[in-house]
Amino acid sequence: MGTVVMYASVSVDGFVADEDDDPGPVFDWLTAGDVPLDDGGALTVSRSSYDYTRPYWDRIGATVVGRRVFDLTDGWGGVPPSGVAHVVVVTHRPPPDGWDPAAPFHFVDGVQAAVARAQELAGERVVEVAAGDVGGQALAAGLVDEVRMDVAPVVLGSGRRFFGTAGGPHLLEDPVEVLQGTRVLHLRYRVRR
After folding, report:
1. How many domains does the chain have?
2. Which residues pair with 15 in a beta bridge?
3. What is the mean pLDDT of the chain?
4. Which structural domain, as residue segments, surrounds residue 127?
5. Measured between alpha carbons, how far is 68 from 65 in angstroms, rounded to an integer?
6. CA distances from 130 to 41, 47, 98, 101 (A)
7. What burial class does residue 169 get, using C-beta atoms within 10 Å of its C-beta: 0-12 exposed, 13-18 middle, 19+ buried?
8. N or C: which end of the chain has fewer CB within 10 A?
9. Are strands 4-11 and 15-17 parallel, antiparallel or unpaired?
10. How far apart (Å, rounded) are the C-alpha atoms in residues 155 and 12?
11. What is the per-residue pLDDT across 36-79, written as a single tens digit (0 to 9) for each?
12. In 3-state terms, what secondary structure has residue 77?
């Protein structure tokens, strides 16, 4: 099985979005450079951010998100983001009415079942778990191998926490990588077992 990585951009005070689910300046680094990060060219980052982020994104086989993120993005129009092959949605509700069953989205009840399904779909590739409530649940359940954070130089003060409700202390190893980009500090940690 591939590595399970909890990932998101985050403010220096630990929030992925404000109270209204708006990431605002937390995502500014994604347009702060001149190197295209995606095929459409909407995301342009510094060379160091590209060299760190693009190879990681290319290794992702499946992403696990909560229903909140799925609904906020309108399911990305049925096309997984950043070239990911599959999205597993943790939800107690069925897919939206009119949802295309051929879209590579899988609706699963519970975070443990979602990570297991994502691992099946990803094979040896990375399983990414979106930070926030679902990521915190996965960390608390001992399912996360690594934490990646793109720390933006902004203080939100309140909002959606990176670690959601992780339920107590969880030790991480010393940073595996620390890399400065434009308007971002990229951090990568392994979870201590």
Report:
1. 1
2. 161
3. 96
4. 4-190
5. 8
6. 23, 24, 25, 23
7. exposed
8. C
9. unpaired
10. 6
11. 998 888 999 999 999 999 999 999 999 999 999 999 999 999 99
12. helix
